[in-house]
Each structure stands twice: as C-alpha cells, then as structure tokens.
Amino acid sequence: MEASVQRTGKPRQNWAGLWNISFGFFGIQIGFALQNANMSRIFQSLGASIDDLPWLWAAAPLTGLLVQPVIGFMSDKTWLGKLGRRRPYFLAGAIMAALSLFIMPLSEVLLLAAILLWTLDASLNISMEPFRAFVGDMLRKDQHTAGYAVQTAFIGAGAVVGSIFPWLLGQWGVSNVAGEGAIPDTVKWSFWFGGAALFLAVLWTVLSTKEYSPDELAGFGEDVAHPDGETTMRALAARSYLSSLAWAGVGAAVVLAVAEFELEKEVYLLGGLLIAYGAASAVAISLAKGGRGTNMLSSIVGDFSGMPDIMKRLAVAQFFSWSALFIMWINTTPVVAQNFYASPDPASAGYQEAGNWVGVLFATYNGVAAIAALTLLPFLARRIGKVQTHVVGLLCGAAGYASFFLLRDPQHLLLSEVLIGIAWASILAMPYAIVASNLPQRKLGIYMGLFNVFIVVPQLLVATVMGSIMKAFFPGEPIWTMLAAAIVMGLAALAMLRVREEAQS
Q1: Do 327 and 488 contact (CB within 8 A), yes or no?
Q2: How many domains does the chain fold into?
C-alpha cells in the first residue's frame, strides 16, 4: 500500500529542480526592474512633466489586467506536446519583451516610449502569469512554500541586476548625461543587456524542465480534466443583471466626476474600465442564461465571482500592498532628485545622478528580499504562522516608506530599503504560499490570473488618481506620495488580520 501511494504522488523536486522551475523569473524580473526604475526617467528625459507620469504609466497595468486572466485561462487548457502547458507562454512573452527592451532606448518621442511600455508590460505579463501556476503544476503541496520562496529569491536577484546596472555602467565610464530629449547611454545599454538576459533565462527554464502531461497529472491524483464548469455556470445564470448595472453605473459616475470636479483626464480610464466590466458581466450572464456558458468570458466572470473565500480576503491585502508599491515605483526618482539631491530638473546632472542612486536603492530592497525569502520569512512562518509573518512584513514596508520623511542623507535611504525589501519578499511569497494548496489543479492558471488582478487594479487606480490628488493638495511636492504609500501599506497589514490561517499538509 505504501509503495502504491508513493507511485501516485508527484516526485519531490531537489534543489536543482526548484532552481530550473523558477530560473526564468530571474530574467523576467530584470525586465520589470529596468522598467520600474527607469521609465519615469525616460519619460521625463523625453519631455514629460511630473504631472504627466501617472497617465503615461496607466496603459501598463491596464494591459496586465486584461492579459493575466486570459493567459491563465488559456494556459489551463493548453497542451502543445513537448512545449507543454505553461512553457509556450513563457517563451512567447520572453521574445516579445526582449524585443521591446531592445527598441525602448531608441525612442526619440514620448508617444513611442509610452507605446513600448505598453508592449513591454503586456509581454512581461504573458511570461509572468504562467510561472505562478507552473510552481503549483510541478511541485507537491508540501513543497509549495519552498517553491515560491525560491521564485521570490530569483525575483529579488533579477531585480538587483536590473536596478543596479545603469549605476554600474556609470561607474565604468559609460556616459550618464542625457542631451535635450535624449536617453543616457547608461540606460540604453542596460535595456539591451536586460533584453538578452531575460530571453536566455526564460529559455533555460523552457529547455531544462519537462512539464507533466495531463495523463501524468491524472496518475498523480490531480484533477486536471476541463469540466464544463456546470456549478459555476449555474450560479452565473442565476445572477440578476443588477450587479452588472451597478458596475457600469459606478463607472459612469466616475466619468461624470472628471468633468464636474476637473479631475485629470486619465481618470477616464478608471471609469471606462468599470463600465467595460459591467458590460462584460452582463454578456457573460446572458450567455450563461442561454446555456452557452462554456466560453472564456463566462468562465472568467464566473470564476471571478466564485473565488475561494481565502483568495477574496487576501485580495484586499494585495490591493493595498500593491497600491503602495506602485506609488513608490512611479515617484521614487522625482522624490530622491528633489528632496535629497535638490535637482528636480530632469535635464540636470544631479537628476541623472539621483536616477542612478534610485537604481541602487531598488537593487538594495530586491537584494534584501532575495535573502529574506530564504531565511527570515521561513523562520518567522514556522513560529508565528504565514499570516502573521505577512503582517510583520507589511508593517516593515510602511515604516520604510514613512522614513523618507525623517531622513536627509540619500545614503541613509539604504536603511529604508532594507525594511521595504522585507515587505517585498513577503508580498511575493506569503500570499501565494497561503493559497496555492487550496486551488484546484484544473483551474490553477485562471485563479492565479484572477488573483493577480488585485495586483494590477491598484496600479491602474494609482496611475489614474494619484496625479489628481497630488496636483490638488501637494503640487510640486512628490515627497508626500511616500506618506501615502506608508498609510496604504498599513491598511494592507490591517486587511491581513481578516485572513484565517489554514492548516497545510
């Protein structure tokens, strides 16, 4: 009997297996780090004002919002022979992202840079989303925590490389001076390096791993069949159209508020998104009522409304924590340049120096995250549980953001980044470790995609609303965005108190 049980279970992965499964994320995170640390700098070098930054960033999270559930749904239903289930999406996304990184530094006009950011973010999301499900596919439940910890370590390491490379190039003598309407050579070469590294890292995972086929997963006792989702569709068909109207109504109210209260025009994106979801929900309900529920739209809408309770509770914490992160990514460069280097002018040498130092700061928090994911977080989780560990991590992040108000020397900001790094490690590892073992294998991709919606929605909200708030209350004072980030991260910690720890096998 014991031998039979052993034969039907997934093999336990050694450290080489854990490495190969997540190594591609190292390259993907190099791309994200270059994007997060340098796009505001690129936009401002091409003539954008600080007030323009939120709307220039808005297309990226909107793309992720659309891409992740779709890719999750598709990857659940894909099997391309030797390429497998998730790896085709890794590879396609990596090729597109690498091309975007190679072309981005050649941008000479702001519009082209904004379009390339959209393309880059879409490509990174195509690669990233299946990686989350890939861990669940390849690992036994008792290895999920280790798998996501290793993945987080690669995320941190990749971000260190991507964040610090412009600064290193400057130290090696590469020009860091941007001419009028031009991008510094340090940024150009960093993006080209990042494109090559991203593609090669993802290719490593594609070539070094072999996915379990549907038959093999069935032999392991995994429920991998693609049922028609009768229960979900019946629940969707039973819904009234009032919820759809409510979503559309809120969106319409947001659109009207733009004109009434003279809000920034990028807020139209938020209103349009809400209206679009209301319309999509109505169509999905109509299809389900007509007995045509076996389609992508109905499946996504039905699974969104029927997410497991633990995912819904975690989603609230995800919403607030990623709101804080996006505030940081957009505003750190202008904050450091103005408040620590006294150089708010993007064309000044001091601003470019500040931009490079921000790269070092971002490398620091990512390096701390890589170490914390493998050391501090498992230590705390064993003693106080995953939920409380995540609370501690989020409170560290709130303290790190708040410290920007207390410090004056840019070197001292390294201490802030240590605290932010602990939060970053927890955000990347703990929620996924909590939910992964509770997700049905047959829907792992779609549920991970829907879970990641609560990463993207706050980014879109920050991109559309934060500019209006800052312009109205703190014009020309970006330092106050860090206080906003601290408050929002604190709200994430409070939200985690509603999450009940569940026993894991």
Answers
A1: yes
A2: 2
